Each structure stands twice: as structure tokens, then as C-alpha cells.
């Protein structure tokens, strides 16, 4: 069946992010769909990211004053109208001809922060010129440090406000869905900001070799000591993305990062890892407010955002949903996805009696032990 062209206006029946998934599938090639939709292995963690949110219940509250309500947050010294950011995703031009520029325009319409991927299919300067909302730059720290030093200079010169260092992908995950689709990038689409960088040779399984992955690739993998190198080569705040364990959160604090993202790479690296919302409370407890925590993985509703904030996140990242919006309708689709989520977040705040996000805490969630207990209710839900 031939692919449908991008929409020029949003159909009136489109009401949720799930609707955009269907619209995107009708407009993406099998290769692009496998890349964006898929995860590692059996995609258990992809599903778990979503399912874990459904196991958390919100606590409705009534008659709370809502005068002056808003969703504004302050993060790394900047004010944002809402806590919804666009996560880094590679190769937006596979989803829409206007690629990351269209994404930036859609984010700007809703004043959403956007994190540009190292593997963007458009020049970081082009995206910065189009954006009217804050941009952060996601980085995979590569062995060619001279190239990375020059890249960091370009990022700062273009006006990006932070470096988001991805730390959870020393190797590409085992993505069977991509393999089955025989995934390859379309002609003319590449990681344009990495052109000219010296890379390690590709990994191939050689018969009789002592190892498949151990060797040059993992020898060059990022370690904690590389944080110091990055701090010496940029004045921008550094946020580490990929924290899934409280002990790693402690190490990140020791290395004086400016923030961290609780992330399992959208379920695209280690399958059967827990959902991000499951590990968030322990990490937030360990961090104890010393730096802001963001969360990605499984956000599909405004209620999901409220649950993440209740358990310790300062903001959330969305990934696949905005790519589906981009595929469906370009910049307008990205903006509409963000608008749906923000509207749902404000509605969830109203129904739980929270006029501002600084009123959101663990008591926003229903205490299941209290619900099933015959004992006296606690003074405050967990």
C-alpha cells in the first residue's frame, strides 16, 4: 500500500497521542517504522515503560483553590511554560522532509524545550536558527576528542543551553525489529553533524574470535572519568541521560553534573530493564533535590506527567509521540502532540487539586495500602 503524504491540517477526530501513532504508521516506510517504533530484544522494557504508569493511581481532590494556576517551572536558571521537553531522536528527516527544523518549529509553537540528537539529520546551526524555544544538545562522547571539542564549540556558538550526555549506550541495543526489516538509512540521510569524525570500525562477529564486542569498542566506552574531560571543554551545564540506579545517581552527583535524566533509552538498549517510573522514587530519594531530575520512557498522557512529577521528576521528555506527530503533519503535528499533553496535564492538576507544579508531591498519588487497609488513614499518602 502506498504511503500517505503528511497532513496539511489535523483531522478533528484526533484526540490523543495514540491517534498519532496510527497516522504515523500510514506515512512511514517499514524501515522508518522499525527504527522509531522498535526496541531491544523482545521489547519487554518498551512495553513495561508504558504499563508501569497504568499501575499508579492518582488521588482526586475537590474544592481546592485554582486561582492563578499555571504549569511553569524553573530549570537550570531558565523559566519554562511547562515541564514537557522533546527527547533526542536521530534522523528526523526519515519521518518528514523538513526534519529537525520542523520539529523545532513545532516545539517553539508550544514553547517546549528540545534536545537535538548527535545523530540529527540537519545541521545544528540550521535547527538553532529556526527555533524560538530553548535548545539543548545531546552528545555521545566519541573517541575522536579533537572533533568533539570543535563540535562543542559549534554547539555553544549556536546558542544551545546545555549538553545532555547519553551514558547508557556503550553499544547499540539488539534491535531485532530493525534486523527483520533489514533497516538502512535512506539515501541522503545521515548524521550530518558528525561528518569528518574519525570512527571505530564496525563490529562484526568473526569466527574463532575471542570476543564479539569486548575489544576496541568497549575499550573506548565512556566512563565516569570522561565527565571531567567534558566539563573542561565546555562552559555549558552537563546533564547525564541514562541513570537507572541510585548508586549511579550518587556517582553523578560526585562528578558535579548539573542534572540527570532517568532513562532506559526508550527500551532500546537493555531489554528486561525496569520501567523508568519504577526506579524514579529510589533515585529521587538518593538525589534529595541536589540537582533536577528529568524522566523519559512511556509518557503518553498528561496523567503520566503528573505521576512522574509526583515521584520526584522536575520535567519529562517525550520521544516516539512527537516523532509520530512529525510524520503525520510536520511542525503542526509536533505542536499538536505537545498541546494535547499540556492540556491533559492541566486537567489532571485540576482534578487532583494542584494549582501549580510546586504543589505536586507523592500525596498526589493514591495510597494503595490505605485504600485496602481497615486501619486509620495516614495523615499523608506516600
Question: Could you describe the 3D structure shown?
Answer:
The strands form two sheets. Strands 3-10-9-8-7-6-5-4 form an eight-stranded parallel sheet. A two-stranded antiparallel sheet has the order 1-2. The chain has 14 helices and ten strands. Helices cover 37% and strands 10% of the residues. The chain has helices at residues 17-25, 30-37, 44-54, 99-109, 124-130, 145-157, 176-180, 216-219, 225-232, 246-254, 276-287, 302-310, 320-351, 368-372; strands at residues 73-75, 78-80, 84-86, 114-116, 135-139, 163-166, 238-243, 259-262, 293-296, 315-318. The protein is globular. Helix 10 links the parallel strand 7 (238-243) and strand 8. It has one domain (17-195, 213-369): Alpha-Beta Barrel (TIM Barrel), CATH 3.20.20. With 382 residues, the chain is an alpha/beta fold. Helix 4 runs parallel beside helix 5 and helix 10 packs across helix 11 (276-287).
Helices and strands in order:
Blueprint (H helix, E strand, L loop, with lengths): L16 H9 L4 H8 L6 H11 L18 E3 L2 E3 L3 E3 L12 H11 L4 E3 L7 H7 L4 E5 L5 H13 L5 E4 L9 H5 L35 H4 L5 H8 L5 E6 L2 H9 L4 E4 L13 H12 L5 E4 L5 H9 L4 E4 L1 H32 L16 H5 L10
Parallel strand pairs: 3-10, 4-5, 5-6, 6-7, 7-8, 8-9, 9-10
Antiparallel strand pairs: 1-2
Amino acid at each position: 500500500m502506498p504511503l500517505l503524504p503528511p497532513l496539511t491540517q489535523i483531522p478533528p477526530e484526533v484526540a490523543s497521542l495514540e491517534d498519532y501513532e496510527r497516522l504515523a504508521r500510514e506515512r512511514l516506510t517499514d524501515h522508518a517504522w522499525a527504527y522509531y517504533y522498535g526496541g531491544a530484544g523482545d521489547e519487554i522494557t518498551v512495553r513495561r515503560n508504558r504499563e508501569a504508569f497504568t499501575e499508579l493511581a492518582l488521588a482526586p481532590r475537590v474544592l481546592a483553590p485554582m486561582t492563578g494556576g499555571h504549569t511553569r517551572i524553573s530549570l537550570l536558571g531558565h523559566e519554562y511554560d511547562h515541564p514537557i521537553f522533546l527527547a533526542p531522536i536521530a534522523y528526523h528527516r526519515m519521518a518528514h522532509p523538513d526534519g529537525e527544523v520542523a520539529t523545532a518549529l513545532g516545539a517553539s509553537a508550544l514553547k517546549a524545550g528540545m534536545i537535538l540528537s548527535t545523530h540529527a539529520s540537519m545541521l545544528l546551526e540550521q535547527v538553532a536558527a529556526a527555533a524560538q524555544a530553548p535548545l539543548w544538545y545531546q552528545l555521545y562522547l566519541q573517541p575522536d576528542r579533537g572533533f568533539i571539542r570543535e563540535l562543542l564549540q559549534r554547539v555553544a556558538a549556536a546558542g544551545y543551553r546545555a549538553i545532555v550526555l547519553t551514558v547508557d549506550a556503550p553499544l547499540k541495543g539488539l534491535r531485532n525489529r530493525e534486523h527483520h526489516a533489514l533497516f538502512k538509512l535512506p539515501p541522503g540521510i545521515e548524521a550530518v553533524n558528525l561528518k569528518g569524525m574519525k570512527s571505530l570500525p564496525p563490529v562484526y562477529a568473526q569466527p574463532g574470535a575471542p570476543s564479539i564486542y569486548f575489544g576496541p569498542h568497549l575499550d573506548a566506552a565512556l566512563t565516569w572519568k570522561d565527565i571531567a574531560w567534558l566539563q573542561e571543554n565546555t562552559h555549558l551545564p552537563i546533564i547525564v541521560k541514562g541513570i537507572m540506579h541510585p548508586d549511579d545517581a550518587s556517582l553523578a552527583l560526585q562528578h558535579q553534573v548539573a542534572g540527570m535524566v532517568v532513562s532506559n533509552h526508550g527500551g532500546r538498549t537493555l531489554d528486561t530493564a525496569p520501567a523508568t517510573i519504577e526506579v524514579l522514587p529510589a533515585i529521587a530519594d538518593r538525589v534529595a533535590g541536589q540537582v533536577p531530575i528529568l524522566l523519559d520512557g512511556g509518557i503518553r498522557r498528561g496523567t503520566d506527567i503528573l505521576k512522574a512529577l509526583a515521584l520526584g521528576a522536575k520535567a519529562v521528555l517525550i520521544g516516539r509521540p512527537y516523532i509520530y506527530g512529525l510524520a503525520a503533519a510536520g511542525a503542526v503535528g509536533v505542536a499538536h502532540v505537545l498541546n494535547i499533553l499540556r492540556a491533559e496535564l492541566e486537567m489532571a492538576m485540576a482534578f487532583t487539586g494542584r494549582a501549580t507544579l510546586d504543589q505536586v508531591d507523592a500525596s498526589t498519588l493514591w495510597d494503595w495500602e490505605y485504600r485496602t487497609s481497615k486501619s486509620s488513614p495516614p495523615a499523608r499518602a506516600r
